[in-house]
Amino acid sequence: MIEETKDQLPAFRYHMLDFLLAKSEKVSFTDSLLWLTSAIQTYFPSLCVSLLPSPSDHMAQMAQEEVHFSALKINASFFVIEDHVSGRSFHLTCSQDGVFPEELPDLISSFLNQSMKQERLYIKTVYQKKIYKMTELFHSLLDQTEVLKKLLESLHTTFPLFQFSLFISHDQDQCLGVPATELYMEGEDADSFALKVYLSGDILRKNETTAYIPIKGQQGTYGVLMADGAGDSPLTDAYLDEMSLIANAAGKAFENAQLYEQSKTSIANLELINETTRRLNQRLTLTDTMNDLAVRMAESFHAEEVGFFHIDHFEQQTLLPGSTAFFKETKSSDIYNEIKEKLYEGEKGVFIGNGQSVFGKAGYGSLMAVPMIENDQLLGFAVLLKKEMYAFTFEMYKLFQALIHHATLAVTNSMLRDRLEHLVKTDQLTELYSRVYLDEKIQYSMKIHQKGVFILVDIDNFKNVNDTYGHQTGDEILIQVASVIKSNIRKHDVGARWGGEELAVYLPNVTVAVGKRITERLVCAVRKSTKPEVTISCGISCWDSESKKSLKELVHQADEALYTAKRSGKNRLMIHESIKK
What we know:
Layout: H1 2-22, H2 29-43, E1 50-53, H3 59-62, E2 70-75, E3 78-82, E4 89-93, H4 104-140, H5 144-158, E5 163-168, E6 181-182, H6 192-200, E7 204-205, E8 210-216, E9 221-228, H7 237-280, H8 286-301, E10 305-311, E11 317-319, H9 333-344, E12 350-352, H10 356-359, E13 366-374, E14 377-386, H11 394-425, H12 435-448, E15 451-459, H13 462-469, H14 471-487, E16 494-499, E17 502-508, H15 512-529, E18 536-544, H16 551-567, E19 573-575
Parallel strand pairs: 5-6, 18-19
Antiparallel strand pairs: 1-4, 2-3, 3-4, 5-9, 7-8, 8-9, 10-11, 10-14, 12-13, 13-14, 15-17, 15-18, 16-17
């Protein structure tokens, strides 16, 4: 029998070699093992050979490991074909009266090694193709959230025996649309393994079945992947290397998507800055400038409160137009004082994410404030508020800085333009309008209205006031009378300094009867509220669509009526005699 089996060895060896050379790469190690068992039984039927893996070994696990089998003789009919490093083994037995040919166990060992090697090569090729396709897929995505979703999907498909968990840092929280855990630096929720991997960028094993893998790109680590075999699926080095390749590919794709998003954001920010600057430089009034700026701030940052403060040379604050109603309330003073204090300490801005720790639980959760500086001088500041904590990102803060920096010059120009316009159309002493401005308003009213009343006012015995009390007191009397006029006329009525001690009032679109009542009120109020007490005399004229008077005629008639009031004893009003009763 021994001679018979020896004679079969060359044919068996040739048949094994032919199988290894001809077999498809898709033929698994298990299939090769079945073929080998069948071939042994064909060539050596008298031996009743049995070739089985040890009970603790699994074919799929063997295929993932670097194993090298060699035959160990136990006795003439029992060999152990074993890998001494991993302990993986096969039991080769024959009938009790049989004897293995001397070369047969070694031939079987060589066949197993070659089949295993081909299996590993095939699996590696398949994985590499998968990883290449995954990499292509990752890099085709321009959305960070989609990259992470595809990463998890790919891992679950490629490694079905493992569970995967994702840890994402707080600054990537826009990607928490995927199943992920935020990386905590401290506290009960902190995962020390995930944190170590995030900070070091290196793979870290927790045990034989669990490891933490960094998701990193060229510029940093963006998250951590935890692979868990759930206790019964060992995480081999081969598995770990493949998972790491996939995680690195996803990390680079995530980074590219992030850079793409940042570039889009930068372009949008530049467009916003350019559009805002263009709009603000359109020679707008201060009110229009600030209202436009407030709308843009609220829309761009989703702010609930917007405030603009001007600080003059005396460190007095003025709430500028465009500010929301909250800043007119006394409870906003704590926020104003906090910002002002920090800016005067030299801070370039104020950025508060947890506002409730500063202003209390009832206060606003997020705050951004940026100074308005021109020629190294603090002109004021802009502030945005939101109830939600950590609602503003640092990128938003930098954009806010850029917008206010570009807007400051336009705001300053609008303030100067408004101030110059105010000086041109306003009398500096009384803060009433100038005579030129009054003439313009009357002429405009004659074009769009149906009627109007003109009142000429003269302070009685004003020369005696100057002679008795001095010119400074005379100026104070003018200011007091002007104040009475301003407090007794409507917003769209016009009070003006006519010249010297003469003042004027124009009431658009009212009848002479209404004009008379208002004038009577002025005469009475001046006598009661001036100190030293003075009186006024008033002349009234009017126009309507029937009379078709010119501005010159209107003024002349009021002047004549004033002269009549003076001759009649002063401290009274007179309506021009041409006006029908």
